[in-house]
Specification:
This protein has 232 residues and is of the alpha/beta class. Helices cover 45% and strands 14% of the residues. The protein has ten helices and seven strands. It has helices at residues 12-19, 28-42, 53-58, 61-70, 81-89, 107-112, 122-135, 156-166, 188-207, 220-225, and strands at 49-51, 75-78, 96-98, 116-119, 139-145, 172-179, 214-216. A seven-stranded parallel beta sheet has the order 1-2-3-4-5-6-7. Strand 6, helix 9 (188-207) and strand 7 form a beta-alpha-beta unit. Helix 2 (28-42) packs across helix 4 and helix 8 packs parallel to helix 9. It is globular and about 60 Å long. The N and C termini lie far apart (56 Å). It binds pyridoxal-5'-phosphate. Residues 51, 53, 99, 180, 219-221 line the site of pyridoxal-5'-phosphate.
Length: 232
């Protein structure tokens, strides 16, 4: 039994832990079937990036990652490099995509563990480029475009401003460009507006001779609701 030390902080949560043990059972066969079903639905030629951030939304990152990869997911998505490192250490060699911007000092992990980074600012790109040069490697990156979520990414106007510098940095392989919808499940009008803005950014860059193998915008809701937005 735990003895109280400094003051009395026997919280309600502690009491609840004692009286209510809890667990969840995850049916990995169902996760696998759903993965195959989504793959079927989106068809050949469209990649499936299975998001396993936040401990696979609480379902268990490592077992879910193994399952979705074995059942046809093409890439895994995580929030930060540390999650990517855990997956690599558990023997996962599928491509791993990091959603949030890299913090200063995380570049080395990205290079050593061969993770794919989102680029949301020029400084972030420059830091990663420096590290890639030191190691003599090319690091795959995706440009994150801010089209209305209001979180991270380049505003369309700032892409124009920084394009020359950004796309000439050594050591970076511009593998993709993407955005994130603010409310794909709830606001069709805003979602379409974000999509149009994204497409206009992609078009504008194409006119300047800059093209990306992977354009992507669909989170789960959009992938289901807007077939025409599935892109790559
Ligand atoms: C989590 C996340 C996604 C995936 O969203 P789902 O609704 O889980 O499919 C897509 N893009 C970004 C930037 C995210 O953080």
């Amino acid at each position: 039994m735990k003895t109280e030390t400094k003051g009395s902080r026997s919280t309600e949560m502690e009491i609840e832990e004692k009286v209510r043990p809890r667990w969840i059972e995850v049916n990995l066969d169902a996760v696998g079937r759903n993965t195959r079903r989504v793959k079927e639905m989106i068809g050949d030629g469209v990649k499936l990036l299975a998001v396993v951030k936040g401990d696979a939304y609480g379902l268990g990152m490592v077992p879910v990652a193994h399952t979705v990869i074995s059942q046809g997911a093409d890439l895994l998505g995580v929030t930060n490099p540390d999650e990517g490192v855990i997956l690599r250490n558990k023997g996962i060699d599928a491509p791993i995509f990091i959603f949030r911007p890299l913090l200063p000092g995380e570049e080395e992990l990205v290079v050593n563990y061969q993770l794919i980074s989102s680029i949301s600012s020029l400084q972030q790109a420059e830091r990663l480029s420096d590290k890639a040069r030191i190691y003599g490697v090319k690091v795959p990156v995706h440009l994150k475009v801010e089209t209305g979520l209001g979180r991270t990414g380049f505003l369309p106007s700032s892409i124009k401003e920084h394009a020359d510098r950004l796309f000439s940095l050594p050591g970076l392989e511009w593998e993709g460009i993407y955005t994130h919808f603010a409310s794909a499940a709830g606001d069709p009008q805003f979602t379409r507006q974000q999509f149009r803005l994204f497409q206009s950014v992609v078009e504008g860059l194409k006119k300047r001779g800059i093209q990306f193998p992977l354009c992507h915008v669909c989170n789960s809701a959009a992938a289901l609701l807007y077939p025409e937005m599935r892109l790559d």
